[in-house]
Amino acid sequence: MPSLKSLAAASTATLSLALGGCAALPGGGNIPDSSAPITQSEAQIGAEAHPQLLSEFGGAMTGPQAQYVREIGQNIAVQSGLGNARESFTVSLVNSPVNNAFAIPGGYVYTTRQLVTLMNNEAELAGVLGHEVAHVALRHSQRRQAAAQRNTLLGAAGAILSSVLLGSNPLGQQIGQAALQGSQMLTLSFSREQELEADVKGIEYLNSAGYDPRAMATVLASLAAQNALDARLQGRDDARLPEWASTHPDPASRVQSALSRAQGMTGVTNRDTFLTRIDGLTYGDDPDQGIVEGRQFIHPNLRLSFQAPQGFYMVNGTDAVTINGQSGKAQFSLAQYNGNLQTYVNSIFAGLSQQQQIRPANIQTTTVNGLPAAYGTARVNGGSGQVDVTVFAYEFSNDRAYHFLAITPAGQAGTFNQMFASMRRISQQEAANVVPRVLDVVTVQSGDTVSSLARRMAYSDAQEERFRVLNGLSSNQGVSAGQKVKIVVRGR
User: Could you say which residues form the signal peptide (predicted)?
Assistant: First the structure.
């Protein structure tokens, strides 16, 4: 099924705040008691949001890898006291290519397959899931929502879009309503204090479950290294996007705090068991959701492809592809189509804002690589100056159309012309040639080196850097015979 779709808004019910005593933070301060069990209202909120979150993050995976993640997640979640039995928790491995994990009230815990591929032992998996359970046990979601109650659901979505599309430009609060879904209300950013609180509790859960608590620090270090590598490969200065997504800021600065908290504690890591159990897991984009190869996006199921401009990078999501660069930002997605492209373009503009009317001066029609197309640009006053908003739509059939929504500084709408002109249908053979990348867990043989193993990575660039980050190896660490390591290979 195509991943570019519209989702219903999640419940915005007000959450009760049930906090008791406190425990000490590593650097001073207190954290609330987390002994209160899951309430009926929390269970209802989680049950209502669960299917929407699964849809937003690519759906729940099944099979032995998903079962393994569920077992570890339930084992660590029981340490929280939120529920008396493993069955009190619903732990899902979701089919998303971004590094993310989260949990919502009611005992619902999630991790993406991509974040699992970055881990190197079972203790790290337990640590990430325990950290998310801690956010729920500490009622962080309730505390965030209580502070945000004066905002409407759509206002919150618009605020998120302002960071995705427009940086600090307040216009994002006005045009974001059609781009993001309400379930993000349950996964908005936590404060640094809340992240540290969850780290502390997560380490406690690891220790009580018999795992090495230092795993919290090592997984954070791997995440920070991956963020930095992604930023360099994509030509970004900002190494904090799009990591433990927007919900987990600054993993690098929390590594030392986690190490300090775990000092003197020991436990198992179950490294070889973990690597064996995740062998074959899809790495990066799933072809069913479309894949990003350099500046090209190709979707074999939808039979389409386009190319981002030079100097821009793409982030593939379940609902849209985001195109980012210094001179503009854009998203590629779809909406309901009635067979008229001009009406379609107008409907996209009409859905951008409730605060101000956004209309293009005119809508022009054209043909792009044999596809009927229509486009229009509107000049809009933003908080830090004028911007141009462009909608460029393509008809693929009588009932199916896709569009770009692009934002550039005023007078620079042509920034994306090359991308608009690159949209094309792909052949059946080209679609068939798109295969996923998967993890291949191998045992290091005598004579193997980091360099020789890295050359087996299914990438044409930064092979050794990718291999080191994937396996949690520093720049001067090597490998030894008999050691299990991960490489990324082409699947079938």
Answer: 1-23
Annotate 113-177 with DSSP letters as a single string: HHHHHH--SHHHHHHHHHHHHHHHHTTHHHHHHHHTTTS-HHHHHHHHHHHHHSTT-TTHHHH-T
Domain ranges for the chain? 22-148+188-283, 289-432, 437-490
Q: Is the pLDDT of residue 141 over 70?
A: no
The C-alpha angle 60, 248, 329, rounded to 5 degrees, equals: 85
- Minimum mean pLDDT among 103-107, 154-158, 355-359: which range? 154-158
3-24: pLDDT as tens digits: 443 322 222 221 221 222 223 3
Q: Give this prediction's pTM.
A: 0.79
- CATH class, 289-432 region: alpha beta
Query: What letter does residue 9 receive in the DSSP assignment?
Result: P
Q: Are 465 and 229 in contact (CB under 8 A)?
A: yes
What are 196's two structure tokens?
């540290």
Q: With bands split at pLDDT 50, 70 and 90, how would you rate the model's confidence at 252?
A: low
Between helix 215-233 and helix 122-137 the angle, nearest 10°, is: 100
Question: Which run of H or E residues covers position 258?
Answer: helix 255-261
- Do 134 and 206 meet the contact criterion of CB atoms below 8 Å apart? no
What average pLDDT does this structure show over 92-99? Answer: 92
Chain segment 192-217, per-residue pLDDT in tens: 777 778 878 888 888 899 999 888 88
Q: What's the pLDDT score for residue 357?
A: 79
pLDDT in tens, 336-372: 999 999 999 999 998 887 666 788 989 999 999 999 9
Q: Cα–Cα distance between 91 and 103 in angstroms, integer? A: 9
**Cα atoms found within 13 Å of the Cα of residue 335, Cβ hemisphere only:** 25
CA distances from 307 to 312, 329, 342, 423 (A): 10, 14, 24, 7
Based on the number of CB atoms within 10 Å of its own CB, is 268 exposed (0-12), middle (13-18) or buried (19 or more)? middle
Cα–Cα distance for residue pair 464/140, rounded to 1 Å:
39
Q: What tokens appear for 28 in the block?
A: 């001073």
Examine the pLDDT at 159 and tell me if it is beyond 70: no
Task: Map residue 432 onto helix, strand or coil.
Answer: helix
Rounded-to-integer distance, Cα 32 and Cα 75, Å: 23
Nearest 5°: the CA angle 154, 160, 166 is 115
What CATH class has 437-490?
alpha beta
Measured distance CA(269)–CA(179) in Å, rounded? 41
Dihedral sign, Cα of residue 119, residue 123, residue 124, residue 127: positive
What pLDDT band is residue 166 in, cutting at 50, 70 and 90? very low
Closest CA to 165 of 394, 32, 333: 333
Q: State yes or no: pLDDT of 182 exceeds 90.
A: no
Burial class of residue 23 (count of CB atoms within 10 Å of its CB; 0-12, 13-18, 19+): middle
